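Open question from group meeting: does this chain pack into something compact, or does most of it stay loose? Before anyone orders reagents, we agreed to write out a predicted structure and look at it together. Recording both the input and the output here so the notebook holds the full record.
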Amino acid sequence: MVTENPAGFPEKKTAKFGQVRTSTVLKLFIVFLAVTLSYLFTQKKSETRAVMSPATKGLSTRIDVAGIPTATVTGRVKPGSTLFQALVDKGLPRQEANNVVGEINKSYDVRRVKAGDEFRLVQTQDKSLIAFDYLADPLNVFYVERHEDGLVSGKREFRLESVESLIYGEVDQTVYQTILAMGESAQLASLFVNVFAWDFDFSTGTRKGDRFSVLVEKKYKDGRFFGYGKILSGKYESSFGTHTAVYYQSPEGIEGYYSPEGRSMRKAFLRSPLRYDYITSGFTSWRFHPVLRRGRPHYAIDYGARPGTPVWSVADGQVIYSGWKGPAGRTVIVRHANQYVTSYSHLSRMARGIRVGARVRQQQVIGYVGSSGLTTGPHLHYMLKIAGRYVNPQRVKFPPGIPVAQKYRREFDRQKEVYLARLEDAPKVATIARPPVPFQ
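Structure tokens returned:
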């Protein structure tokens, strides 16, 4: 603002100049202070903001710390190592790793951590922990997260969706190869073969052109194939006859596979003690011994199989011998109920815990195929005694299992009709399973 003086020159009004400058500086200082306080408040809030992993999103989605870059690393526990050491190896400070182990131990016993277990770390650039996920199994993840008031641990469970799937095929060479060629996995083949293992020997009875159908539960995790559940019903048609089985669980919780008439598919003894390639020698009262070069009885079945093939007990029982037995090599002998005794010889080694006095379950692995003792190659020498007398395992009619209780027959028949009707709708093209997705 200017005024005219008597000489006619313009003149600045300087009386309030100091007041204007002070007001401007004060305003700038207030703005600077506000910006500074806002920045400090934001930084403090960023440092203490809770980092949560929404269970509905699984492991792949996290809320990052605002304004702070993070890094995600995955790893596995190495053989002979510990969870603590695995975290340190991935760059987590030792004190921080110790805190994580102590926290997760509240939800999961870290003594159960084993080699190969997977985990994931989310850290800041200065290696401070944001979150930690430990995969105990594909459906259970234990986590540690940094919250405003410190570390918090917990468990996140994943639920599987179950879908009934009907699979049908015609055998080319073996059931296993056929199922694999259809895009399914060996797990399904094992499940199917085990249903009929008491009545049908797939190693010797399978023929090209045999037909099968199976109604099985398929499990999906987040829309991706996870694995197989129960086989609900199955049928195998061969030149030796047709075998049909239906799954049933009684109100009392007793479950198993039964024939359409309600007879249990499970017998006291399995037809064979391993998955073998062929029979090298059968049960006979005279056989020319290839090593001894003379004739002698062969009161056993010799199963040719690859070295290391698992050998299982054909029935529940108790181990009465486990060790070296002269020409028979490494041998396991099991005593069963009703004066039945089985013997498994020429093993490469015994399974863990198979010692005299140990109780074994039907189909429990007791050893592995080898060529110990007097042999010309790897095979299993399998013998069966009943009341002290050797018998041919392939001709024995084993005691039947427990049938469906009469009081549940009506319910069983209703369920049976539903499952068998589904088998009749078997398509000509097998259902293709998507492979399981690994933890990422």
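Observations to bring back to the group:
Residues 1-18, 40-64, 428-440 have pLDDT under 50 and may be disordered.
The CA atoms of residues 232 and 247 lie 5 Å apart.
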